[in-house]
Amino acid sequence: MTTVLDSREHPTGFVEKTPEEQYAAPAKPSLIGFSRAELAAALGSVGVAPAQQRMRAQQIWNWLYVRGATDFAQMTSVSKELRAGLAERFTLARPEVVAEQISVDGTRKWLLRLPGEDDRRPHEVECVYIPETDRGTLCVSSQVGCTLNCSFCHTGTQRLVRNLTAGEIVGQVMVARDRLGDGTTEGSRLVTNIVMMGMGEPLYNFEAVRDALLIVSDDAGIAMSKRKITLSTSGVVPNIARAGAEIGVMLAISLHAVNDELRNELVPLNRKYPIAELLEACRNYPGLSNARRITFEYVMLKGVNDQLADAKALVKLLKGIPAKINLIPFNPWPGSRYECADWEQIEKFSDYVFNAGYSSPVRTPRGRDILAACGQLKSATEKLSIRERMALRAMALTD
Ligand code: SAH
Ligand code: SF4
């Protein structure tokens, strides 16, 4: 594992910001995450005439998302006056990278610091990049922590929760692009897919997730195809149809159990929206077809949900829904009460599902050594004091 420290890295050691610097809310808003209409209004606020706002907004959009400008000074096609006016009121800031970890398998995890709310203590979220031979997937967070307490998920144990803004969600994509040097040369795109599978339940932060994904998929910007973006939900039924209608990305459902009794235990939200209602919402998902299937995620827990009888029930349950089944080996975390199913058992389960006609890839755990795998994400904000964090970073520096 390599740990690279950013922003407070210092040749002679480690420099921590003063408490004032640390907790100061940003004085100026970043344009990252503004919708086109908000961008046009921002231009109006610095004196651009209404008739010109759309065209100028288009130009700035291109600088932000196609060219990845990080400084107004780079925007050479924009007049000096306008650049200065914008710089006075706005920034192009992305979330601050506190640490970058690189797994032995090439997976990268960024710990990002975001401003806090009332008490102004900063929050932290994680974002993970998973390179594969034919694609590169960015796993993006939608909340700090999660209000749902799935019993096998590390994120669910984090008490502190807040919704991310659209800018903070788009900001994760920008951080990844900046750090990977993505999009700088023609045809060398490294982030080819985005999954909303980081920290948080995206459908409990609907508007921000929607606005962010519409920016990421905007043709004149990052232009990520909606078919390459997957939103994963633990089953917030009322927002599933909305996601289809207003966002139009691919859907993944964290199913994990084939009967309500077990699902109530694993995914407590099931008490509110039981399996039958959830699957009904899936059947009605706008745009659903054999070419646009729903992915059902199923975490393999030893002796809990990994029997052949479960596989059979799963196939029966999904009958009639264009579906893919994604088997996820359980990723342990400190204090977790489950074990990962045995490999043989996972193969048996997978064979059964495959023979029943479903594509059933077993998701290879990635980045386990840096706790970057599914369900292992949990930012350290609430657990570690600044002193402890400094000690940890100092250790990392001398690794
Ligand atoms: N909150 C959303 C998206 C984030 S979780 C959701 O629950 O769908 C992304 C995926 O990782 C989900 O399918 C989740 O159930 C799964 N997951 C959570 N903890 C895990 C763990 N410890 N091991 C393997 N997968 C896990
Ligand atoms: Fe939240 Fe998803 Fe984890 Fe459940 S699995 S606690 S919904 S992040």
Give a brief outline of the structure.
The chain has twelve helices and 14 strands. The chain is an alpha/beta fold and 399 residues long.
Describe the structure.
The protein is an alpha/beta fold. Helix content is 32%, strand content 17%. The protein contains twelve helices and 14 strands. Helix 2 packs across helix 3 and helix 10 runs parallel beside helix 11. It is elongated, with a radius of gyration of 22 Å. It starts with a strand and ends with a helix. 42% of the residues are buried. The N terminus and C terminus are likely disordered. Iron/sulfur cluster (SF4) binds next to loops.
What brief labels describe this structure?
single chain, disordered N terminus, disordered C terminus, binds S-adenosyl-L-homocysteine, 399 residues
What is the number of beta strands? 14
Class inferred from helices and paired strands: alpha/beta
- Gap between N and C termini: 9 Å
**Secondary-structure element order, N to C:** EEEHHHHEEEEEEHEHEHEHHEHEHH
Q: Characterize the largest beta sheet: strand count, sense, and whether it forms a barrel.
A: 10 strands, mixed
Low-confidence stretches: 1-17, 380-399
Q: Tell me, briefly, the overall form.
A: elongated
What share of residues are in beta strands? 15-25%
Average residue-wise pLDDT: 86
Instruction: Report the total helices.
Output: 12
Strand order of the largest sheet: 1-4-5-6-7-10-11-12-13-14
Query: What's the alpha carbon Rg, rounded to whole Å?
Result: 22 Å
**Helical residue percent band:** 25-40%
Bound molecules: S-adenosyl-L-homocysteine, iron/sulfur cluster
